User: Which sequence fits this backbone?
C-alpha cells in the first residue's frame, strides 16, 4: 500500500474519530467573483434560502447589516420576544460581528488562517437555519423559538479562535483553564451571546411582563444556549440518537394536524409550514430545544448539501484552516491533530470520509423529520459525494494531490489573513 493509499485507508477508518476531537469539516467551491449589483439594498427575508450565496450577501459590512435587517428589523421579519428596539438590535449586531474578528493571545495568527470560522460562515448558517425552518422545521417551534434559533445561528461561532478545542487543550491555553475541556469554544460562544443580549436589553425580563411573556423569554434564552452548545461536533452522535428517539413522536403529532392522508408518516414540509400548521404547543420544551438544536447543527454542517461550487469552496477553506493548525503544531514541536497535516492528508479523501461517517445519517434523519429541507440537502450531498469520490480516485491514480480552491471571504466577511504567493 503506497503512502497516499495508506492515508486514505486511515482517513476512511478514523475520520469520524477525528471529528470527535473537535474538528468540523464542511465543503464548497470556487466561484469567488462577486457581483456587487446583485446585492439588493433592502431585500426581503423571502429572498434568502438554501441557494443564497453567503460570500455575496456577506461581502461588505453594509450588505451584512442589510441581511440582518431583513431578518430582525424590517417588515415580515422574525419577531423576538419582548420586541426589542431596532437600535438595540443594531448595537447587538455590531458587537456580535466584532466578536468574529478578535485575535486571541496565545494563538499565532502569522500561521493560523482563520478562513472558515468567519462572520461569513455565521451568516451562512443563519440563512440556512431560516431555510430549514421555512422548508418545514418551523412547524415544531413557536414564533419566539424560531427567531431565537435564527439569532443563535448568527452567534454560534462568535469568539472562535481559528483553532480546534483539542488544540487549545493540547497547548493548555488560558481558555482551557478558564472554561475546562468540554465544549470549550461552544460554551464561550453561548456565554458571550447571552451577555451581549443582556447588555443590549434583548430577551431580558422587564417590569410589567406577565408570566406568559416571562416564560417566552426564558424559553428563548434556553434555546439559544442549548442550540449553540449542541454545535459541538463531539456531541453529534448523541444528538442523532436523541432526535431519532423522538422522531416518531414528532411525526405522529404532526399527522394529527394534517388534512391530507397522503402525508401521514412524512416529516414536516414547506406546505405544512406555509399552511400555518404549528405543533409547538403539543411538544415539550425539552423536545423543542432538541429539534431546534438539531436544525442548527444541520445548518452548521450544511455545506456538503449545497451546490457543488459552494460545497467545494467551503471545503477548501475549512481544510486550509485545519492545515494551518497542523503547521502551527509542527512549529511548536507538537503532533498535528488528525486531518491537520497538509503533507499527508487527502482533501477529497477527508470529505468522502466526513460524508460517509457524519453527513449521510444526519441528512437522512433530517429528511425523516423535515422532509423538504432534508431532501434538498441529501440530494445535493449524494451528487457532491460522487464528485469527491471521483477526485479521490484521480488523486490516487495520478499520485498528484488535489488542488484546493482557496478563495477566502472578503475582509469585511471576516477573513484576517494574508494572501500567499499563487493565491487570488
Ligand atoms: Zn459553525
Assistant:
Amino acid at each position: 500500500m503506497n503512502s497516499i493509499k495508506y492515508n486514505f485507508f486511515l482517513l476512511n477508518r478514523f475520520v469520524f474519530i477525528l471529528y470527535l476531537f473537535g474538528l468540523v469539516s464542511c465543503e464548497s467551491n470556487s466561484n469567488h467573483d462577486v457581483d456587487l449589483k446583485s446585492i439588493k439594498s433592502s431585500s426581503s427575508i423571502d429572498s434568502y434560502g438554501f441557494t443564497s450565496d453567503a460570500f455575496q450577501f456577506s461581502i461588505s459590512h453594509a450588505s451584512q447589516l442589510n441581511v440582518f435587517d431583513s431578518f430582525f428589523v424590517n417588515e415580515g421579519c422574525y419577531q423576538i420576544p419582548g420586541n426589542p428596539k431596532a437600535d438595540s438590535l443594531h448595537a447587538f449586531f455590531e458587537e456580535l460581528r466584532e466578536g468574529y474578528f478578535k485575535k486571541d493571545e496565545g494563538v499565532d495568527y502569522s500561521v493560523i488562517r482563520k478562513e472558515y470560522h468567519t462572520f461569513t460562515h455565521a451568516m451562512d448558517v443563519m440563512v440556512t437555519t431560516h431555510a430549514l425552518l421555512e422548508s418545514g422545521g418551523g412547524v415544531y417551534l413557536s414564533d419566539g423559538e424560531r427567531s431565537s434559533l435564527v439569532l443563535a445561528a448568527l452567534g454560534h461561532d462568535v469568539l472562535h479562535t481559528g483553532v480546534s478545542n483539542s488544540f487549545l487543550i493540547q497547548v493548555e491555553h488560558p481558555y482551557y483553564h478558564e472554561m475546562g475541556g468540554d465544549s470549550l469554544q461552544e460554551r464561550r460562544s453561548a456565554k458571550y451571546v447571552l451577555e451581549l443580549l443582556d447588555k443590549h436589553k434583548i430577551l431580558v425580563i422587564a417590569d410589567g411582563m406577565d408570566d406568559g411573556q416571562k416564560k417566552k423569554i426564558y424559553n428563548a434564552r434556553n434555546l439559544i444556549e442549548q442550540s449553540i452548545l449542541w454545535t459541538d461536533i463531539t456531541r453529534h452522535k448523541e444528538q442523532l440518537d436523541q432526535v431519532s428517539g423522538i422522531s416518531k413522536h414528532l411525526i405522529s403529532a404532526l399527522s394529527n394536524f394534517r388534512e391530507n392522508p397522503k402525508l401521514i408518516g412524512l416529516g414536516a414540509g414547506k406546505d405544512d409550514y406555509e399552511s400555518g400548521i404549528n405543533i409547538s404547543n403539543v411538544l415539550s420544551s425539552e423536545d423543542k430545544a432538541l429539534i431546534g438544536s438539531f436544525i442548527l447543527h444541520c445548518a452548521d454542517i450544511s455545506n456538503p448539501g449545497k451546490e457543488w461550487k459552494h460545497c467545494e469552496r467551503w471545503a477548501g477553506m475549512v481544510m486550509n484552516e485545519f492545515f494551518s493548525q497542523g503547521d502551527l503544531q509542527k512549529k511548536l514541536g507538537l503532533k498535528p491533530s488528525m486531518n491537520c497535516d497538509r503533507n499527508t492528508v487527502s482533501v477529497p479523501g477527508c470529505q468522502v470520509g466526513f460524508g460517509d461517517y457524519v453527513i449521510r445519517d444526519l441528512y437522512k434523519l433530517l429528511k425523516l423529520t423535515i422532509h423538504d429541507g432534508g431532501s434538498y440537502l441529501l440530494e445535493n450531498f449524494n451528487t457532491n459525494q460522487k464528485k469527491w469520490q471521483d477526485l479521490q480516485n484521480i488523486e490516487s491514480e495520478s499520485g498528484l494531490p488535489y488542488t484546493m480552491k482557496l478563495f477566502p471571504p472578503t475582509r469585511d466577511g471576516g477573513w484576517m489573513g494574508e494572501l500567499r504567493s499563487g493565491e487570488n
Observations:
- The radius of gyration is 21 Å.
